[in-house]
Amino acid sequence: AWKKYSATGFKSKDDFQKETVRHIETTLARSLFNCDEKAAYSGTALAFRDRLIIDWNKTQQRQTFADQKRIYYLSLEFLMGRALDNAMLNVGLKTAAKEGLGELGFRIEDVIQQEHDAALGNGGLGRLAACFLDSLASLNYAAWGYGLRYRYGIFKQEIENGYQVEIPDYWLDFNPWEFPRNDVTIDVQFYGWVNKYTDDEGKQITSWQDGEIVTAVAYDVPIPGYGTATVNNLRLWSSKASAGEFDFAKFNSGEYENAVADEQRAETISAVLYPNDNMDRGKELRLKQQYFWCAASLHDIIRRFKKSKRPWKDFPEQVAIQLNDTHPTLAIVELQRILVDLEGIEWNAAWEIVTKTFGYTNHTVLPEALEKWSVPLIQHLLPRHLQIIYDINLYFLQQVERRFPKDRDMLGRVSIIEESQPKTVRMAYLAIIGSHKVNGVAELHSDLIKTTIFKDFVKIYGPDKFTNVTNGITPRRWLHQANPRLSELIASKLGSYEFLKDLTLLNKLENFVDDKDFKKEWAEIKYANKVRLAQHILSATGISVNPKALFDVQVKRIHEYKRQQLNIFGVIHRYLAIKNMSAEERKKLAPRVSIFGGKAAPGYWMAKTIIHLVNKVGDVVNNDKDVGDLLKVVFIPDYNVSKAEIIIPASDISEHISTAGTEASGTSNMKFVLNGGLVIGTLDGANIEITREIGEQNVFLFGNLSEDVEDLRHNHFYGNHQIDPELNKVFDEIKKGTFGDEGAFSSLVSAILDHGDYYLVSDDFNSYCKTQDLIDETYKNQDEWVSKSITSVARMGFFTSDRCINEYADSIWNIEPLQVKEEA
Ligand code: 26W
Question: Which parts of the sequence carry N6-(pyridoxal phosphate)lysine (predicted)?
Fold first, then answer.
């Protein structure tokens, strides 16, 4: 293990027990005699928290003293999951805690499970932000995350009669990992009007006045790094009625209810995470959230910058702000407003500061996910910002016109303002224009944005403004914490846990692909993880599955482009095949468990229909005596980070089967392979780079290529659209009512039969099924399978988020780590 840096806090099992018991008895005011698992969790968390706080304070002091550039990662989503196990790993005293808790009569695994997931995110983008925070701290970068402190995270999913039901996720009843900073508040303005006048000295003044004020209160969350004393800060803003604004007069004049209603309205801003993934809905409250968070974060950043008394032109040397998708794009406008209106800086000088400060990461090419805000809405909520957006656009279009005087259409195409009814602001264009770098999240995706949605901007700015940073994942959570036995086995072969800091060291595992004992242990660990998942499945769904069967997993948000429908149609196809098999043939087939999980956005009908179909197919297949263990179909409810930690290490095959060109990167593909699972996938997102790294012979690829998608779609409408005959048989079975009322699934079927099959399910069906058959064959040779598994893990070093963060630091932020001196 690594060196312990912190000189304070507990050092041994006895120390740990003393601290934990003290917290249980005093902080929680509980007696040890009625201490349940929840109280044991709370006491343990508080004991570890104490240790983090010391390093946290020191880190903040060190970074202030060094006074060098800081990174600010602005993200509306941080999908953190649980914190205790991570704190234990990074503080480095898990063994002491395990023994200490054991003596008090608790199993550490059960205690860890008491914690409520911090689920302030939807899916990939939010979890990426969490992995990035882990890497930034582990690599000693001076970095802050900025987000919103939602009272309700992503909803909890229950399945009732095969349908998704959403339950509010109130997660803040006991959260030892956040620190309210009641002294760190920022007043944020909305509505009002813009006053332009000349002051006594003849200066032009623009002032935004008479708005409504809402106060942002900071809540800080410590982010410990692994193998270092760095503990960075995640600052989440909570909204409350402003003390200045809040109408105490109303209380006195008997308008008690109105006064309370005002207060409630202010608190609504940070009340709930919007549960849409890749779907822009344009709600006013969402825009309010975005501005509230951007304004509070920027004012906080500027306050910190001003302490060093540097001139404004140094701002980009001290501050790098990364925009996690377009959600924080208003920060660009807000900084320009502060510089021009409040600091009196000339427009062009201000704009240079702005563009040098921001970087923008795009996470999707799906048109329905690209944010557009209606001009009247912005006019109403942020009148001064709308003017600034128009000015930014004017200067930009003038520049474009000078460079491309003959291309009249160009101006309309690249304008920030879309001339629709009503007019809208194209946030991605604003983000590109206001940033010095734009990146995609995997090679194909970064190429696609340059040749499709942002093509004109490549012409205008040249190709160097656009770059790629392929996503990554933190191996601390996704290997060591989720799969401790595998991590331990790897460490025993490599001689240390150094690979958790330098994941490329995994390549030494290739020396052991022919080591019989090693392979046996490798396979045993996978089996044990499958047993653990089987137990979870039984308790969560009542379905009993055989851990010896092939576990085939697809867990991610439900979306048509991710094609869970292709998977479940494939399952039905398999079911029909089994029904038609002789007893002899059945004996030869590898038993399989098809495992699904994922949430549907509450308003996304098609996604909910897919969930319903999976559950109904499960009801039929799982109770068919003919089929027995040969096929089980499971929908695991409420997929989240902590469930992922159980599911991912237990998979034999995972599915990453999006229509080519639609999945920007995917990150669970990396998690599965890093845990020794093989992948069935399309040539999409990071699957492409995974294949390049681990070798084509270790990936089950299928389906059409991205460059063919457009033609295929065209042919569906204008050619002779032939549906795959085997898929037609699946549809016939659904229409026969085998899985219940066919009407319930008609939208799903007719999307393919009647509406052009936009996601090419039929085009890829045959290739998908054949590849599944190949998987069956390959799985029968367990020895070969395990070799593939080991080789793949050995070659996954590239996909650590540490590599990603170093790339961002080099090519976008221009920042070096702040080294930490080791303490005795
Ligand atoms: C405006 C509504 C909305 C909400 C969320 C639009 C778009 C989003 C996200 C960008 C969706 C998302 O999570 N995208 C995923 O980002 C991951 C991290 O880069 C990628 O790995 C996934 O491929 C991408 O779908």
Answer: 671
Does 380 participate in catalysis according to the annotation? no
Going by C-beta distance under 8 Å and a sequence separation of 6 or more, which residues neighbour residue 114? 37, 38, 40, 41, 42
pLDDT of residue 3: 42
How many Å apart are CA 188 and CA 257, to the nearest integer? 24
- The strand ranges marked E within 565-723 are 592-597, 631-636, 653-656, 678-681, 699-701
Is the ipTM above a cut-off of 0.95? Answer: yes
Which residue has the CA at smallest separation from atom 10 of ligand 1? Answer: 363
**pLDDT tens-digit series, residues 77-91:** 999 999 999 999 998
Q: Catalytic residue at 556?
A: yes
**Span from the CA of 254 to the centroid of ligand 1 (angstroms):** 48
Residue 653 phi, psi (nearest 5): -130, 135
pLDDT of residue 253: 73
Return d(Cα 148, Cα 136) in angstroms, integer.
20
**CA–CA distance, 659 with 706 (Å, rounded to integer):** 8
What is the model's pTM? 0.97
Report whether 249 contacts 148 (CB < 8 A): no
Q: What gap in Å lies between CA 635 and CA 541, rounded to an integer?
A: 8
- Tell me the pLDDT of the chain averaged across its residues: 96
- Domains of the chain (ranges; CATH) run 1-66+83-116 (no CATH), 67-82+117-470+808-813 (3.40.50.2000), 545-793 (3.40.50.2000)
Residue pair 91/51 in contact (Cβ under 8 Å)? The answer is yes
Helix axes 37-66, 13-22, angle to 10 degrees: 100
Please confirm, yes or no, whether 69 is among the known catalytic residues.
no
Mutate to test the pocket of ligand 1, among 76, 277, 670, 671 (most ligand atoms within 8 A of CB): 277
Is residue 98 flagged as an active site residue?
Answer: no
Ranges of the chain whose pLDDT falls below 70: 1-9, 245-251, 822-824
Measured distance between the N- and C-terminal CA atoms of the chain, rounded to whole angstroms: 15
**pLDDT score, position 249:** 65
Phi and psi angles of residue 289, each rounded to the nearest 5 degrees, phi first: -55, -45
* pLDDT at residue number 246: 56
